[in-house]
C-alpha cells in the first residue's frame, strides 16, 4: 500500500530571505575583496572578475540544489543515511590521493580547476546520522553508554579522519555540533559535561602536539611579538577592522586587500567587510546570522517529529558555529583557524553544500506543527 503524500506548507519566508541576502552580500564582497589580487595576478589572467564569475556560477548551482531540496520531503534522507556515511568516508579517504596544499590534504581536485572538500559534506552527514539515531533511541538518550558514547565514537571517527587531513577547525565544528545536538535532545548535564571535557582535552592535545597550531595559539595571545610571521594575519585583520571605523571606507576601497591580508576573499573576508562597510556593515552581517539562528531554532521547535527537530538543530548549529568561530578569529577573540564564513567566504563546494543543506532546513519549515 502506498504511503499518503506528505502535505507541504509554505517555506519560512524570513529564513529564505535571510539566506538569499547573505549569499548576495557574499557575492558582492567576494568581488570587492578579490578584484585587486585577481587584476594584478597572471594566475588569474589579470581578470578582476575571476573570482566573481566562479562564485556566481557556484551560487547558481547551489540555489538550484536548494530549490530541489526544498521540494523533497526531508524524511527521505533517513533511508539513505548509511549510504551517505559510506560515500562520505570514501571521499574523506580519497583526498590523500591528491597533492597537499600548504601541508594539508583537504580537497579532491576535479578537471576544469574545480575541487570538492569532503569535510564540508561530513558535517551534515554527521548531523543526519545524529537525527536518525536519536529519534530511534528515545529514552535511551539519558544513558551514557547507549545515548552518548556511540555518538562520541561516530563523530570522533569523522573528526579523526578530518584531523588526518590537517583540518582541526572542521573537526572541532563536528564535535561542538554533536555536543549541541545531544544537549538539545535531552542528554543529562553530567554526561554533556564529560563529553565537553573529553572534546576539550582532545583539542588541547592536538594543539600542543602540532608545532604550527601551538605557534598560532601563542601568536593569538600576543600577535605583535612576531608581526611578520605567526602574528601577521591577525594584525592585518585588526588594522582592516580599525581602519573601517563606524561607517567604513566605502565599498571597494579596502587597502588591506592589496596583498596585505593573504587571500582576503576567503577566511578573512569579514575583516574586509569591516574595513569597507565599517561597524555598521559588520553589525548587519551579525544581525542576519542572528535572524538565521532564530528562525532555524524556531523551525526546529515546531518540527512535527523528533527527526525533524534534531535535523534542524544540527543544520542550524553547523552554520552558527562556523559563523561564531570565523568572526572570533578575525576579531582576535580566538586563535587563527581556517573556518570560512558561511555563504560569504569564497568557495564553490562549501557554498553549494551549505545551500543544499538550507534547502533541507527550509523543507523542514514547510512541515511544522
Mean pLDDT: 88
Q: Which percent range describes the beta-strand content?
A: under 5%
Distance between the termini: 26 Å
Biggest sheet, spatial arrangement of strands: 1-2
Major β-sheet profile: 2 strands, antiparallel
**How many distinct beta strands?**
2
How many individual domains? 1
SS-based class: mainly alpha
SS summary, helix count: 14
Q: Which of globular, elongated, flat, extended, rod-shaped describes the shape? A: globular
Catalogue the unreliable spans.
Answer: none
Radius of gyration based on Cα positions: 21 Å
Helicity level: 55-70%
Pathway: Cell wall biogenesis; peptidoglycan biosynthesis
Keywords: Cell cycle, Cell division, Cell membrane, Cell shape, Cell wall biogenesis/degradation, Glycosyltransferase, Membrane, Peptidoglycan synthesis, Transferase, Transmembrane, Transmembrane helix
Organism: Clostridium homopropionicum DSM 5847
Subcellular location: Cell membrane
Brief digest:
This protein is mainly α.
Name some characteristics of this structure.
369 residues, mainly alpha, 67% helix
How is this structure best described in words?
The chain has helices at 13-39, 50-71, 76-79, 81-94, 118-137, 144-147, 149-164, 168-184, 189-209, 211-221, 232-244, 269-302, 306-330, 348-365; strands at 108-110, 114-116. A hairpin with a 3-residue loop joins strand 1 and strand 2. It has 369 residues and is mainly α. It has one domain (13-368). The longest helix is centred in the last third of the chain and has 34 residues, at 269-302. Peptidoglycan polymerase that is essential for cell division.
Amino acid at each position: 500500500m502506498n504511503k499518503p503524500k506528505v502535505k507541504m506548507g509554505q517555506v519560512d519566508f524570513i529564513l529564505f530571505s535571510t539566506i538569499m541576502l547573505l549569499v548576495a552580500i557574499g557575492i558582492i564582497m567576494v568581488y570587492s575583496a578579490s578584484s585587486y589580487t585577481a587584476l594584478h595576478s597572471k594566475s588569474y589572467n589579470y581578470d578582476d572578475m575571476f573570482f566573481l564569475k566562479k562564485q556566481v556560477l557556484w551560487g547558481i548551482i547551489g540555489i538550484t540544489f536548494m530549490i530541489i531540496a526544498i521540494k523533497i520531503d526531508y524524511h527521505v534522507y533517513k533511508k539513505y543515511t548509511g549510504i551517505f556515511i559510506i560515500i562520505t568516508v570514501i571521499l574523506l579517504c580519497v583526498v590523500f590521493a591528491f597533492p597537499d596544499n600548504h601541508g594539508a590534504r583537504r580537497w579532491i581536485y576535479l578537471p576544469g580547476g574545480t575541487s570538492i572538500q569532503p569535510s564540508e559534506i561530513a558535517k551534515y552527514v554527521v548531523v543526519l546520522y545524529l537525527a536518525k539515531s536519536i529519534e530511534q533511541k528515545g529514552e535511551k538518550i539519558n544513558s551514557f553508554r547507549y545515548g552518548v558514547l556511540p555518538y562520541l565514537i561516530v563523530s570522533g571517527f569523522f573528526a579523526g579522519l578530518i584531523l588526518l587531513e590537517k583540518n582541526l577547525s572542521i573537526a572541532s565544528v563536528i564535535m561542538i555540533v554533536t555536543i549541541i545536538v545531544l544537549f538539545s535532545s535531552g542528554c543529562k548535564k553530567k554526561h554533556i559535561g564529560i563529553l565537553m571535557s573529553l572534546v576539550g582535552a582532545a583539542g588541547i592535545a592536538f594543539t600542543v602536539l602540532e608545532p604550527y597550531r601551538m605557534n598560532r595559539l601563542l601568536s593569538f595571545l600576543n600577535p605583535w611579538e612576531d608581526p611578520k610571521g605567526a602574528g601577521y594575519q591577525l594584525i592585518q585583520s585588526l588594522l582592516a577592522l580599525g581602519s573601517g571605523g563606524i561607517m567604513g571606507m566605502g565599498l571597494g576601497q579596502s587597502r588591506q586587500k592589496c596583498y596585505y591580508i593573504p587571500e582576503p576573499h576567503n577566511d578573512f573576508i569579514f575583516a574586509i567587510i569591516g574595513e569597507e562597510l565599517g561597524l555598521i556593515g559588520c553589525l548587519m552581517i551579525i544581525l542576519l546570522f542572528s535572524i538565521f539562528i532564530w528562525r532555524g531554532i524556531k523551525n526546529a521547535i515546531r518540527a512535527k517529529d523528533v527527526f525533524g527537530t534534531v535535523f534542524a538543530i544540527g543544520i542550524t548549529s553547523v552554520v552558527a558555529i562556523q559563523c561564531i568561530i570565523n568572526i572570533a578569529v578575525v576579531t582576535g577573540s580566538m586563535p587563527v583557524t581556517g573556518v570560512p564564513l558561511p555563504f560569504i567566504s569564497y568557495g564553490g563546494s562549501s557554498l553549494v553544500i551549505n545551500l543544499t543543506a538550507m534547502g533541507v532546513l527550509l523543507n523542514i519549515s514547510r512541515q511544522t506543527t
